[in-house]
Amino acid sequence: MTRNRLRAVLGLWLNMGLVWKPDMKEYWNTKDALRATPGFARIMSRDKFLFCLANLHLNDNRKQEKKGKPGYDSLFKVRPVLDQVESLLTKYYVLNEFVSIDENLLGFKSRTSPKQYLPNRFGVKLWVLADSANGYVYKFKLHTGESNDTERETYDVVMSLMDGLLDKGHTLITDNLYTSVPLASTLTYQHNTQLVGTLRGNRKYLPTVPKCRVGEQVVYRSGRLLYTAVRQNTSHKKPLLLLSTRNIATEVKVRRAGKDVTVPECVEMYSRKTGGVDLADQKIYSYENERRSYKWYFKVFFSVINRLVLNSYILYQDTVQQCQQVESAVHLPPLSRRTFLASVIDDFCKNVRDNEKVAPIPPSLHSGCKLEKMKITKTSSGKKRQPEKDCRVCSDRNVKRTRTTYKCAACNIGVCRECFHKHSKK
Question: Mind listing the pLDDT tens digit for each residue in 50-90?
């Protein structure tokens, strides 16, 4: 598959997120004039698009080691994409102070080793590190399902995603799946990185928390680690547990449901700074082309493409904001995300048909030879017919027959556009 054709496939796939239809073949349906989308057929035919999609591979399957042998990689089919994207995500963006880590699930039910089960959902799980301010996806890692110790696995995942961000003063926001005392101690005491996150009551090294009434809170301090247990509503049977290495045991006033409410500072910070990964998911889902597939690496590949497009829009927004602060710069209104995505799609599909064709035919070396398209004739019944001839240069009926609708006007023989230059030299 050529680069231009791959760009066209990606452009059409992204455009399906803007113009959504339940069946992929409906994008090439010309019978229903009211809901027709002729732009897809102008870029690529339906059969060619489906053929390219069915034969899309991200790695050479012949080099894959069998399961159980040394060198086996469960992510072999997407490994080149993951290695290349990892450097792109971190190259052009500087994270803000607050970052968050959470998981994504790409829906998938067929048999594959990276598949995971969450309540009422199957799919390939991603560990994602994103900027809490705007949802920029800075790093992600695929879950391979090779570990049975959840607490140890989440600790390793956090340290792996935070590699390169330690000792820079960041504050990490996590939920109760990742937060633990060993993780907070390692980040705070060894790497100058703060942690704020909710806790599970069965984690190790936690103090015994007494029962809390509604509106009460219990606070413990151990060095730089602050444990907070608070019960805010009667619907909460158990108190909310938080672990913070950044906050102090104070309360702040916040506005909720039209009323001023007093809450612990760590609770207010967690609710305000968490959700960077969820924000990215929300933005991606707005224009995501979710299709059923039997190939799990399809899900991963197009999910990576959607995150790259989202990151490019966030970079564009930051660039526009920086330009607006410069008085001498031209201040143009920023593009909406839909308009920006449409411009990316247009760039992918720009002149794709012209690029897929052969190079322009040079002037003939023989003054008498001239390439022209054979004129449409009519049959005895009155129907129009496009005549064809065998190409005199490349057609061989014993090996491969090539038919063409072009001919040399001087020689009156069939010649392909690609072969006319060779014919004119002769």
Answer: 999 988 999 998 888 888 888 888 889 999 999 999 889 99
Residue 354: enclosing H or E segment and its boundaries? helix 352-356
- Compute the distance between CA of residue 307 and CA of residue 223 in angstroms, rounded to an integer: 39
Residues 6+ apart with CB under 8 A from 316: 334, 335, 340
Alpha carbon distance, N-terminus to C-terminus of the chain: 32
Rounded Cα distance, 391 and 389, in Å = 6
- Retrieve residue 232's tokens: 């805010």
Residue that is written with structure tokens 């599970």 in the block: 200
pTM: 0.77
Pure H helices in 55-144: 79-89
Tens digit of each residue's pLDDT (9 = 90 or more) over 26-39: 999 888 888 899 88
Separation between Cα atoms, residue 126 and residue 304, nearest integer Å = 11
- Helices and strands (DSSP H and E) totals, the chain: 13, 18
- Amino acid making up residue 275: G
For 135, list phi and psi in degrees, rounded to 5: 85, 15
